Amino acid sequence: MNFINKSILLTFITFIVGCLATEVQLGMKLLVLSTSFPDSIIKSLQSYSIEYDYLEYNYKNPLKGDLPLYTEDNQPKYYGVVLGNGDLTVYFEDTGLWNSILTSKQWDYLYEYQKKYGVRIVALDDTPSINFGTSIFDPSIWGVSSTQEMVMADNDVAKSIFNEAGVKSTATLDTRGLYHVPGKIENDKIATPIITLKPNEEIKEESVVAAYIKNDDGERLSFYIAFGDWSINSVMLNHLWISWVTRSLYAGERRVTFTPHIDDVFLSTGLLNYETNELESTYNSYRSTVEDFEILKNWQETVVNKLPEGSSIKCEIAFNGNGVLAVINPAIALQVDGERYCDIEYVKVPGKGVSRWPEGNYTLSYDKEFLENDSLFAYFDKEENSKNFFWSSHTFTHENLDEATTFDVENEIKTNIEMAKLLNIYDKPYYSGKSIVTPQISGLRNADALNVFKKYGIESGTGDLSRPTLINQENPYLPFFTTMESSNYEGFPIIPRTPTEVYYTSSTVEENTYIYNLIYEDEIGESTWERFINNEVDRTLNLMVSLRNEAHQFHQINLRSHDLEEKESLLQKWSNAVLEKYTKFVNWPVTSLKLDDQAQLYLDRYNRITYCDIEKSAVIEGDYVTAIKISPKSIEKDCKIPITLPQNAYKNKNESKIAFEKRGKDRLVAWVSFEKGDSEAKTIKLNPPLAWATNAEAIEEEEEKVCWSEELGYRCCNNGESIVEYIDESGWWGVTKDTKEWCGIIKNKKCWAEDFGLPCCESDKLDYILENGVIGYEEKYENDATRPAGGWCGIKSAADLVNSNAQELFKEQLNL
Ligand SMILES: *[C@@H]1O[C@H](CO)[C@@H](O)[C@H](O)[C@H]1NC(C)=O
Ligand SMILES: *[C@@H]1O[C@H](CO)[C@@H](O)[C@H](O)[C@H]1NC(C)=O
Ligand SMILES: *[C@@H]1O[C@H](CO)[C@@H](O)[C@H](O)[C@H]1NC(C)=O
């Protein structure tokens, strides 16, 4: 009897715990299957730089045999599967019927793989099906193209999918322009709604557009809607399934940047004359003031409070030194014609061109004292002011460089470097000397200019989304490299940037709206500022949530604020509107990058994709992924690759090639560096192991015990010794039981209070809280003799405060 019971129990355990093979290395690639090219999927995977294999099957190209799911040495290649269009249905010309391009035997082979390795399947553009517990909401209508609002379903599965992706339920999503087949749940034992559709004219009741399905084969996420790479709604849905299918474990990263660029700083810009629609010259021009920059600095500091933790915002100043001279005395400023007289795509013949500079080998013959006659120069030559912004050169006079000779370009570059030195910014970490924003995106087809750039250490230039010929068309997340054809120069990288519709002549809302209407009224009718800003927010938000890293172009005149009623510049208004909507959509931190780092981001991405062939696999033991194995196959150039981790990892201090990056509450990213020729594999151990099998329970992170006091000649405290007796800059100290010597306390992060001889508070709802916010009181334990301090207890959530600030907090209470 006893024996039988036990064996039944054992079988049961084996079924639950042992449903995955003992140790497997599962390739960290996604398999994308579709019957036609799925732009939206591919773009989104590119945006994370997640690796995938795309296999396309259709009537002309059916699958022969089984899907290629294993490597040559029989290792499983994929840790997730994405179906571009549900059942992969195509029209069979021979039978005149619509059917799946895969046979049921081929599907079974896939489902067997799904089950064996705990792999999740995502089906986009799917059709509700009773096989998966759902059905079409109204078979007489079938699918619709009309717009319906999409809302997160009210259940724990839906919440956890949104949560995992960092997508907020306040994101306003709809089906605009996307054909969809409203569904309903038929069998709630296997299907759960994830996103519902609000009723509209056509579908008069609530229906389901995304469902989670859990059946004997495993888990599936189905979307009953088509996807388009132009649609922000598709982009948002992509984030949901990417996090879900990878379980936030992927060889890639999700990085949002937001960097306003301010061109033409120090120059003055003529204001618009509404009567002539022309720009006024010196008589009526605007030049941003010290006060404008102070307002901007304050804005930078406060705007982050509204952004997700880990965010930081800093504007880039692209400056023209000649503006300093012009303000002190127009007569000493260089008079160089800045206009473009050639076609925008003009390719200059090297050695030819036009020289506009009045003198050669020009040097600035002014000292700091003299230049401080300009109050803006005087403000910025103080580090306390310049360091609040990023800085880069926009050339000295703002000459268009398309036709410029070597002579002119050299003057433009060298003289502005001299000005940067006088400003005391040239060697500062916030200065970018390796990249440039050229005036009017010029000079990038001028080999002489590119050679001068290289001579002065400038290794990349800034492009513009309105110049498609200078953009990487295959992958917008990568730089464009010049060619002999484009520029008579091979391989100069151009980093994209986006032009805003805040114009280089606009200092106020009225001026900008006026010009916007001059440009767009014929096309879209008259616009108010509100309409203008909504259009801009939509355009920019789409780029941001698509993880596009383009900086945003503004000009010095857009900083005007000090003499306006609201003391708020166009740049601020525009950025506030964009960031406000961004925070309604996602909770990912957003950061600004200086020009050099911006360029490096694109170049790093390019290098790792192009020159580093590295196999990444998830090591599965039982039902859990315990580690990531990173095995270089061929490293042709130094590179580093990001591995985003669902939670924490064991950090081996001896391992100098793996650096960890964490921004706010965002996922931890391990950056693994390789040098040319490296072949040694690296392993990252997950802490805790990631529950991978369908029914595996999540486990808690194990506290990492690093004995910090050993290197100071003291062992660490054992259990029972870890009571704080002394605190210094090295850490918390206890006393050993046997020899009464100092020992280093390994902090108890789950319950810091135990290290101070206190119990932890059971909940955060306390009867009383001490002023320092770390110690609370639970009345119910007032007379509990087993507690050393009656009702007093340590508030668990104050752990960070205690760990960084313990001495201050406990000085009085503990006589430390
Ligand atoms: C600039 O100076 C260099 C060396 O000092 C000289 O070789 C060159 O001819 C000069 N160029 C001009 C245009 O004066
Ligand atoms: C600028 O300042 C210098 C002092 O360094 C002074 O001698 C000079 O007159 C000033 N020039 C102008 C144009 O204000
Ligand atoms: C780290 O390096 C030290 C000295 O080389 C060695 O004694 C120690 O075992 C290493 N630790 C790990 C975790 O590899």
Automatic annotation (TrEMBL):
One of its GO terms (biological process) is fungal-type cell wall organization. One of its GO terms (molecular function) is hydrolase activity. Residues 706-746 form the CBM10 domain. The keyword Signal applies. The keyword Ribosomal protein does not apply. GO terms for cellular component: fungal-type cell wall; fungal-type vacuole. Keywords: Hydrolase, Repeat, Signal. Residues 1-21 form the signal peptide. This is CBM10 domain-containing protein.
